[in-house]
């Protein structure tokens, strides 16, 4: 039966999203579509051809993020059941999974609705990705202490990341408002001589910092998920009993 270590998906997610940002940044700056210093992440994937690469790769990242979130949910449920935890803990894990899935959906919306085409949907997706990402991090951190056999260092590490992620998300909005960049035009290539550039640079720095923090947070999940494997999905005929072994494997 086919199987793959679950933490490989986290590694693939981190590598893919770093590659997405790096490639789109190189293309957008070389084509003079985005500022070399302190562009927003979305600015590096707003115009073709970088928007095509940005959208395609970020959709893959969205799928990998969903897989990581769902695997974490299964891990949390298995530990709760093994410890005979109350059903409220299972409900909490489901809420965490839903928040994480919405975060993944927001990432897909950012990929498919670039700011140059439909800015409202793009911003909604960005809010879902980053703000719900902070909520997901807080829920996972809480369950690490209350529901799971936690490692104290991992717990403290996640607390620090969650706090800084929250502060960075607030900084993106506040400094973005002060710079006047949230009112358009989109995309916008900033010049250091423009009024509000300092606030824009701080807002952009907070956005990149928040992305880095989320990648670090997901990397901390390797500690728990490295002991799990993902096996092939089984597809069963609905009208044939499993006792007859009429069962087919579909590779995950």
Automatic annotation (TrEMBL):
<keyword id="KW-0812">Transmembrane</keyword>
<feature type="transmembrane region" description="Helical">
    <location>
        <begin position="119"/>
        <end position="142"/>
    </location>
</feature>
<feature type="transmembrane region" description="Helical">
    <location>
        <begin position="7"/>
        <end position="27"/>
    </location>
</feature>
<feature type="transmembrane region" description="Helical">
    <location>
        <begin position="95"/>
        <end position="113"/>
    </location>
</feature>
<keyword id="KW-0472">Membrane</keyword>
<feature type="transmembrane region" description="Helical">
    <location>
        <begin position="53"/>
        <end position="74"/>
    </location>
</feature>
<dbReference type="Pfam" id="PF10277">
    <property type="entry name" value="Frag1"/>
</dbReference>
<dbReference type="InterPro" id="IPR019402">
    <property type="entry name" value="CWH43_N"/>
</dbReference>
<feature type="transmembrane region" description="Helical">
    <location>
        <begin position="154"/>
        <end position="176"/>
    </location>
</feature>
<dbReference type="GO" id="GO:0012505">
    <property type="term" value="C:endomembrane system"/>
</dbReference>
<comment type="similarity">
    <text>Belongs to the DRAM/TMEM150 family.</text>
</comment>
<protein>
    <recommendedName>
        <fullName>CWH43-like N-terminal domain-containing protein</fullName>
    </recommendedName>
</protein>
<dbReference type="InterPro" id="IPR050911">
    <property type="entry name" value="DRAM/TMEM150_Autophagy_Mod"/>
</dbReference>
<feature type="domain" description="CWH43-like N-terminal">
    <location>
        <begin position="7"/>
        <end position="227"/>
    </location>
</feature>
<keyword id="KW-1133">Transmembrane helix</keyword>
């Amino acid at each position: 039966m086919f199987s793959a270590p679950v933490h490989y998906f986290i590694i693939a997610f981190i590598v893919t999203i770093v590659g997405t940002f790096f490639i789109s940044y190189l293309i957008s700056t070389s084509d003079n579509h985005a500022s070399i210093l302190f562009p927003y992440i979305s600015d590096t994937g707003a115009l073709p051809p970088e928007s095509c690469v940005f959208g395609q790769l970020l959709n893959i990242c969205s799928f990998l993020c969903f897989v990581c979130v769902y695997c974490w949910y299964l891990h949390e449920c298995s530990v709760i059941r093994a410890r005979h935890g109350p059903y409220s803990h299972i409900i909490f894990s489901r809420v965490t999974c839903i928040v994480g899935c919405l975060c993944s959906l927001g990432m897909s919306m950012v990929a498919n609705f670039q700011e140059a085409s439909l800015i409202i949907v793009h911003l909604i997706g960005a809010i879902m990705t980053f703000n719900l990402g902070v909520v997901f991090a807080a829920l996972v951190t809480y369950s690490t202490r209350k529901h799971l056999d936690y490692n104290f260092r991992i717990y403290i590490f996640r607390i620090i990341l969650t706090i800084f992620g929250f502060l960075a998300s607030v900084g993106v909005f506040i400094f973005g408002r002060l710079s006047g960049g949230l009112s358009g035009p989109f995309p916008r290539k900033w010049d250091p001589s423009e009024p509000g550039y300092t606030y824009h640079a701080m807002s952009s720095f907070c956005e990149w910092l928040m992305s880095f923090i989320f990648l670090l947070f997901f990397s901390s999940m390797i500690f728990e998920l490295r002991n799990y494997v993902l096996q092939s999905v089984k597809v069963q005929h609905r009208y044939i009993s499993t006792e007859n072994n009429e069962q087919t494997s579909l590779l995950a």
